[in-house]
# Entry
Amino acid sequence: MRWDGQTIAADDGALPGLELAGLMRAGLVRSVRTPEFAGVTFHEIMAKSALSKVPAASRMPFRWTINPYRGCSHACRYCHSTDTPVLRADGSWRAIGALGPGDEVVGTQVVDGVRRYVPTTVIDTWQTRKPAYRVTLADGTQVVASGDHRLLATDGWRYVAPGADEQPGLRAGARLLGPGRSGDGGGAVSGKAVEGGPGLEVASVESLGPRLRDLVDITTGTGDFIANGVVSHNCFARPTHEYLDLDAGKDFDTQVVVKINVGEVLHAELARPSWQREPVALGTNTDPYQRAEGRYKLMPGIITALADSGTPFSILTKGTLLRRDLPLIVEAERKVEVGLGVSLAFADKELQQAIEPGTPTPQARLDLIRAVRAAGLPCGVMVAPVLPWLTDSRDHLRRLLDAVAEAGATGVTVIPLHLKPGTREWYLQWLERDHPDLVAGYGRVFGRGTYALKAYRSWLWERVQPLLHERGFGSSGHRARSGATGRYTDELRPHDEGDYPSGSMAKSAAGGAVAGMPVDGSGLEVAGAGVEQVLF
# Structure
């Protein structure tokens, strides 16, 4: 997103000598570092827009979101040499540097647990200069890319070269996945399973030296594409930082853009005659109650603007800072429909802190649920992600659901682990280090896919369903048409893995569908497609 801004003189909290033209165009006020956020720089901007419209192609059950912060701990940064051939949907090849928005290329998508080739559209392209590496395959194919680019191998996404944060690099002998340059063209591979073609073993990975080289990357609808015969990853979030002249890798982790005037801008947008008071969701991309909110206090202005305009809204968070704004949300709930949701996957603090270090403990989140309910507000809980062999035992699920029920949650959905690119590499590394005896089992449950096998998901539901019933959460009907499960609503509707729990999403001001979702919940994919699952 681009913002046209106004220049405001920086005060004594600004960093001297900071020259970022993109941020200045965006309306940079100042850039700040504080001791309580070691290693993080906050770029305060005067934004020109607050509401973000969800793309029409998205299957999210809402159409509008608000992101007062830009920055993420899971961003990616990677690029290819400008002459790298990319497989187009018509079966031809074109240099990545010659592609543009709207071009049809081949990507991949997981369908019923199997990754398959599908046509996809180039959404954006951009260029940069950085050192590069040459990956040579057994059949002589060469791919020139930055060290932080990721290629798909039989054991998951692998960076071209090892780097910071123990990122796994390609090694000789690794087998990449893709159709190869001598395989079928775009039209012929569409719908086929992604496999490792002959000659795609890595023969060598060599640095091309410190010289900066012209590199290009693209964003596609599927998040990947075929680069010189192998599956190559890209990141949808990168352009939001590149537009601001910030690097989209390390900077995306440590350079947080803050829309300090988001409340005032939102108030003006909601006052337009064209605004139809459609439900707005917060927390589906970046957590609005991340630690930075304690410093900037943007949410009170957002909540007030939404309520005063008659706009229903929902908040999904892990942050206990939500408690600060409960009185304001109670006041807002007298004017509009409000949905609140908390994600909680663990009953045991030790395991939770091993996998989600730095996030609020299970007890802190349970206390948050109690506080929300004590304030008279709804609070749905997402038990997500459920980890095979670690948190899917009857004992753990029973203890967790007992705690959630005792805290007063209005609804619960249970979602199994998704090993999405980026999360997959990190999680499997952790598993191999801390639970090596489980690695083989995860290979059977997930294979090379993002989602657990259907057999596991069905097994988990058969285990969870009676536990939910015993606690008044939902009714029978696995993968039925409906939406959320709940205890305190007039209508108890069947549970579905991909649903938002009852109480977590606001209804339209006009009534009917939950946050833009069809009234009967149809059209939602199974296995949590409605929620971007993030492991911290």
In short: The mean pLDDT is 76. The CA atoms of residues 26 and 103 lie 28 Å apart. The radius of gyration is 23 Å. The longest strand covers residues 114-130.
